[in-house]
Amino acid sequence: MKPRVIEGEATETILEVANVSKSFTSPDGSPLPVLENISFDLRKGEIVALLGKSGSGKSTLLRCIAGLIGPSSGEITYRGELVNGANPGVAMVFQSFALLPWLTVLKNVEIGLEAKGVEPGEMRTRALEAIDRIGLDGFESAYPKELSGGMRQRVGFARALVVQPDALLMDEPFSALDVLTAENLRSELLKLWDAEDFPTEAMLIVTHNIEEAVILADRIFVLGTNPGTIKTEIQCELPRPRSRHTEEFQALVDEIYKIMTEGTKLVPAHIWSDSLVLDGSPTETPLPSASVGGMAGLLEILAAHNGRDDLPVLAQRLSFDVEDLLPLVDAAQLLGFAVVDEADLHITEEGRRFVAGDIDASKAIFATQARARAPLVRAICNSLESTADGNLGEGFFFDLLRRGFSEEEARHQMDLAIDWGRYGELFEFDANSGQLRLESPRHDVAKS
Question: Whose CA, among 215, 238, 244, 443, lies 20 to 30 Å from 323?
Fold first, then answer.
């Protein structure tokens, strides 16, 4: 039975993270910092959310807490004992479900108990109870391939809860699900949490979803990016169940959004100077994960609403989470097409010209802005112009990007740059040879 926190009583600390930093080694041997000086605790009877955008190291931090990887410096303790290996007091629920496809639901749930040496009869009884608790009674003999995404994640929850951990760790557990399934599973998790016999004393969830954090958490730690640092701690004292439609809920979402976007505002295009254009490198200012079409669609909606909109309200109107719009907002800011003022998004004159122009005019505007304001696009153009024939292999840029990004992130940055460069007719890319080549555009592009 999960003890309840009584007001006025001392709260027992289950996990403590003290000054934790984590770096990985890039291919050239240089350190790649992911987390920097993270400190917080997890107490009995509470749900804590670690909230941040991509690049904040949320999942890395969760794996450090679970003992799957060790911190580079600092320490993690479980009930006062230093964690030097697998943390004995926690269980994890993963974004990708992480089920073994050759095992039935029952056998997948029993795995953790088997590892702890639980006797077979007790193991089966406890696994069946966990399956029933999470709403999968009748599916014990089914295999993962027979289940929907929501049902697979239920198995993930059952597998974690069956070992009765002191703390349940969740790594973006709802992000791989459709909106309705995710909403239903979040609601059911909170009902289980409120039950007196819920078999864990605290929960720690990693998420990029502001509304999810506000719905679930008692405390929210907002993380900055590259490397991950804690920007602030927010107490969420709204009574449960929490409705998205209350003024208090929306005010808290707006406050958190403002905190998450602090320091990311860019100078409007019409006052952009040459000195500012030259600031920033491809690793210091990575390309946002946004397509040209997606960003243009956001700007078109903005232009149709008198050039400004409240982001949480806009997201709700479009049936998206605010976080789904953030990459598009970041791209629009980077290119000088929009600026953010707290929770409001405003289109710039350059953004209006981009949206209103015909296809050639829009391409020309995009090419000028991307060349001037997107460091990786600018670096590719400058490098290609420095060769005798305007050609370079993508490997040259990968070697540079790996100094600041993982292999997967470097590939993603190159894919984005290639898409942006192609749209702006700045350069071409041959996927078979891996060669980038300067293109002779039909429009005049201003050079930095």
Answer: 238
> What is residue 21's predicted lDDT score, i.e. its pLDDT?
92
Structure tokens at 435: 């060669």
Name residues whose C-beta falls within 8 Å of residue 278's C-beta, 6 or more positions apart in sequence: 448
Strands (E), 193-334: 202-207, 219-224, 229-235, 308-310
Answer yes or no: are the C-beta atoms of 402 and 28 closer than 8 Å.
yes
> CA-CA distance, 273 to 275, in Å (whole number)?
5
How far from each other are the two terminal CA atoms of the chain, in whole angstroms? 65
Cα atoms found within 13 Å of the Cα of residue 357, Cβ hemisphere only: 15
Domains and CATH numbers, the chain: 13-259 (3.40.50.300), 274-438 (1.10.10)
Token pair belonging to 442: 């039909």
Q: Which of 285, 291, 300 is nearest to 347 (CA)?
A: 300
Under DSSP, the state recorded for 228 is B
Strands 90-93 vs 167-171: parallel, antiparallel or unpaired = parallel
Q: Determine which helix (DSSP H) or strand (DSSP E) holds 33, and give its type and residue range.
A: strand 31-43
pLDDT reading at 447 higher than 50: no
Give me the chain's average pLDDT, please: 83
**Rounded Cα distance, 90 and 104, in Å:** 23
- Which residues touch 37 (CB under 8 Å, ≥6 apart)? 19, 20, 21, 74, 229
Sole residue written with tokens 């003022």: 341
Encoded tokens for 204:
């720690």
Query: What is the layout of strands, in order, in the sheet containing 391-393?
Result: 391-393, 435-438, 427-430
Count Cβ atoms below 10 Å from residue 163 Cβ, excluding itself.
22
Residue 178 pLDDT grade (very low, low, confident, very high; cuts 50, 70, 90): confident
Give, in degrees to the nearest 5, the angle at Cα 266 between 262 and 270.
150
Q: Are 98 and 156 in contact (CB under 8 A)?
A: yes
pLDDT in tens, 354-369: 988 888 888 999 999 9
Opening angle at CA 309, ends 304 and 311, nearest 5: 130
H-helix or E-strand spanning residue 391 = strand 391-393
Task: Give me the amino acid identity at 310.
Answer: D
Burial of 149 (0-12, 13-18, 19+ CB in 10 A): middle
